[in-house]
Amino acid sequence: MIIGIPKEIKNNENRVALTPAGAQELVKRGHTVYVQHTAGDGSGFPDHLYEEAGAKILPTIEETYRIAEMIMKVKEPIEPEYDLVREDQLLFTYFHFASHEPLTNAMIKSKSVCLAYETVEKPGGGLPLLVPMSEVAGRMATQKGANYLEKPLGGKGILMGGVPGTLPAKVLILGGGIVGTQAAWMAAGMKADVTILDVSLPRMRYLSDVMPANVKTRMSNEYNIRELIKTADLIIGAVLIPGAKAPHLITRDMLKEMQPGTVLVDVAVDQGGCIETCKPTTHQDPTFTIDGVLHYCVANMPGAVPYTSTIGLTNATLPYAIQLADKGWKKASKENVELATGLNVIKGDVVYKAVADAFDLPFTAVEKHLVN
Ligand SMILES: NC(=O)C1=CN([C@@H]2O[C@H](COP(=O)(O)OP(=O)(O)OC[C@H]3O[C@@H](n4cnc5c(N)ncnc54)[C@H](O)[C@@H]3O)[C@@H](O)[C@H]2O)C=CC1
Ligand SMILES: CC(=O)C(=O)O
Ligand SMILES: [Mg+2]
């Protein structure tokens, strides 16, 4: 198969979809890998490392899209890329369709096959291609939050762990999945007073077993949220209902209950955000303030630490990319249900229920496209 790796063009997105090591594995299996000139630079992988691994370098994004049967990316295609996507082309990347109607419509119109990293799902649950970036974003959420709590940056002016004779910062985490757990580890390590809210009792039992004493769990409901936001210093949004728009656990009116200088980091912003007032921001202009409450809502947080993220992402995606390249998307999805759950849009049909529901679009069962 011919695989194309375009350079990411989203704001401050320095990741690339494949490392030279990943390219070598695909080339070894007889596939052709084209990498757009300088695509790996931001992650510390200059063109010559790809060439030494057996890949070929193409000068432009247009040529990369034109030649590839499968495009591997990191972020969803953004507007200048919409018209580059070709009919029948396979796109293997993050999409987060449910939070982005123009993207959904553009991919329907393109008649391409869109296999979304974030909905590839293990039969017993678990999102193997979201996990590594959620690990990064969870750890970063605490780092960012600690930073923005500093007074000159708009925060309350509280140190995460305090010092002897003072109270530590209160960190409230909405959702105790991958992002929430990693955020909690970092905050606990900084000696903050951490509370994780989730709706899953088994998950909270697990967290309660493994977390240190400065991490507590509470049931996620409006009553508890309204109580806890009054004194929280840093609130991290980390809920997910796979493929769907995130529920608004913190609504506009609740901001008035918070103290000025409270910091909100809504990691779930890529699925629409679990804080109603969150709108996607960029690494260049990451925050805004409403009612004295600072919001950080960057939708591609891992893009800022590409040395870690690119390798973490390729470690997870490569085994799936190999199956897609070896067998083609249809046979690979028939033989591996995890890949079938990743299919969101196929040749104009929306085949992921939560995406169809988000925009009142007709839903087509994925099986229709997997027969013969
Ligand atoms: N902004 C960014 O750069 C990045 C964003 N993300 C996003 O972070 C979000 C979280 O991802 P993961 O932690 O991997 O998901 P996950 O599936 O591991 O965890 C989600 C958790 O939310 C819980 N939950 C569901 N409804 C809830 C509710 N009403 N109240 C409290 N908890 C609830 C679930 O029980 C689960 O434990 C996703 O939207 C993901 O796309 C991930 C990586 C990077
Ligand atoms: C998960 C995701 O959207 C990201 O890593 O940017
Ligand atoms: Mg994202």
TrEMBL record:
**Residues annotated for substrate binding in this entry:** R15, K75
- Alanine dehydrogenase/pyridine nucleotide transhydrogenase N-terminal domain span: 4-137
Coiled-coil annotation: which residues? Answer: none
Q: Give me the reactions it catalyses.
A: L-alanine + NAD(+) + H2O = pyruvate + NH4(+) + NADH + H(+)
Catalytic site residues? H96, D270
Domain of life per record: Bacteria
Per UniProt, which keywords does this protein have? Answer: NAD, Nucleotide-binding, Oxidoreductase
Looking at the record, the residues that make up the Alanine dehydrogenase/pyridine nucleotide transhydrogenase NAD(H)-binding domain are: 149-297
Q: Does the keyword Nucleotide-binding apply?
A: yes
- Which GO biological process annotations does it have? L-alanine catabolic process
Q: Which residues bind NAD(+)?
A: S134, D198, R203, S220, V239, L240, V267, A268, V269, D270, V298, A299, N300, M301
This enzyme's EC code(s): 1.4.1.1
State if Cytoplasm is listed as a keyword.
no
Q: Could you tell me one molecular function GO term of this UniProt entry? A: nucleotide binding
Instruction: Please provide, in alphabetical order, the Gene Ontology terms of the cellular component aspect for this entry.
Output: plasma membrane
Q: Which InterPro entries match?
A: Ala_DH, AlaDH/PNT_CS1, AlaDH/PNT_N, AlaDH/PNT_NAD(H)-bd, NAD(P)-bd_dom_sf
Tell me the Pfam families matching this sequence: AlaDh_PNT_C (PF01262), AlaDh_PNT_N (PF05222)
Regarding protein family, the annotation reads: Belongs to the AlaDH/PNT family.
Name recorded for this polypeptide: Alanine dehydrogenase
Q: Which organism is it from?
A: Echinicola strongylocentroti
Protein encoded by which gene: ald
